[in-house]
Structure formats: structure tokens, C-alpha cells
Amino acid sequence: MKKILIFASGNGSNFEAIVKYFLNKDLKIELLCNIDEAGVLKRAKNLNIKSHLVRFAQTYNFLADKKFDLYVLAGYMRILPRGILNFGTFINIHPSLLPQFKGADAIKRAFMSGVKETGVSVHYVSEEVDSGEIIAQQKCKIEPDMTLQDLENKIHQIEHCLYPKVIEGLL
User: Fold this and answer.
1) Are strands 70-73 and 50-53 parallel, antiparallel or unpaired?
2) Which pTM value belongs to this model?
3) In sequence order, which residues have a C-beta less than 8 Å from that of residue 89 and are 6 or more positions away?
4) N or C end of the chain: which has fewer CB within 10 A?
């Protein structure tokens, strides 16, 4: 049986989409979270997923005696150093068509920039923020009558469909 460890720091909507996609499939999922009150911890509990609350400084020690087939970042808001990345294959999802709009607030920055399209990228994690090799991208048109909230909703829908399929393909 394959095992993945999902890293998340926030609300956990991508985490939940991944877990639901793999229900009744031969995959063991665990969660690593670094924030005490993160919404993803409640989602993990509701979905009966084993979760680990691990301070960022303790991440290396936590991973040192464990082995996962894939490490999946889903809203984990820390930059992982080389020592941690050496544990295996790490992937991340980002709400833009990389290399455009790397880093925080990508949806808002794309919306405010006047570009006609943005999208979602799944990429391998490297030490540089949102700079690893791109695995998959899906475009999203920014319609003239769209609000920022409309765009955010559309991007999240794309993320929730794309990410689980990429994970399945990599496994």
C-alpha cells in the first residue's frame, strides 16, 4: 500500500479534496500540520485521517524515522530546506500559471494585474519558492465581469480536481 504525507497549515480544502478522491482506494494518507488551530486539523479528524501537529523546527526529526511514497504540500506556508527535501519526492500546488505570480497572494496579484488568464500549477518542490519543475498546469480565464471572489472560487475548483489526479499519476 502506498503512503502519502500531506503538509498543510490552513483551512485544508485541498487536503479534503485529496482525501475524498482517494476514498476506497489503496492509499494511506496522513497529515502534518504546523499550526495549532488550523482548520485542516478539524477536517482530518472528521475524515478519520491520522494527523501530526509538528512545529516547523521539529519537521526534520519527525520525518527522519518515517517513509512515505510522496510528500504533498497543500497550503503549507513554510519553505522546506534541502535536508527535508532529501527525504523523498515533494510536490506543491500553486494558484497561478508558474512562473507567473510566485509566492503569496497569487490569485489577487493575477486579478489585479490585468492578465486575461491565470490558473493552477502543480510542481516539484525545490529550495526556491514555487520554482521546481512543473508537473501539470490548468488554465483559467479571467472574465471581465468576474470578482476576485469569483476567480478564487474557480481556482479552488480547478485545484480540487487537478491535484488528486496528479498525485494518482505520480503514485
Assistant:
1) unpaired
2) 0.96
3) 69, 70, 71, 124, 170
4) N
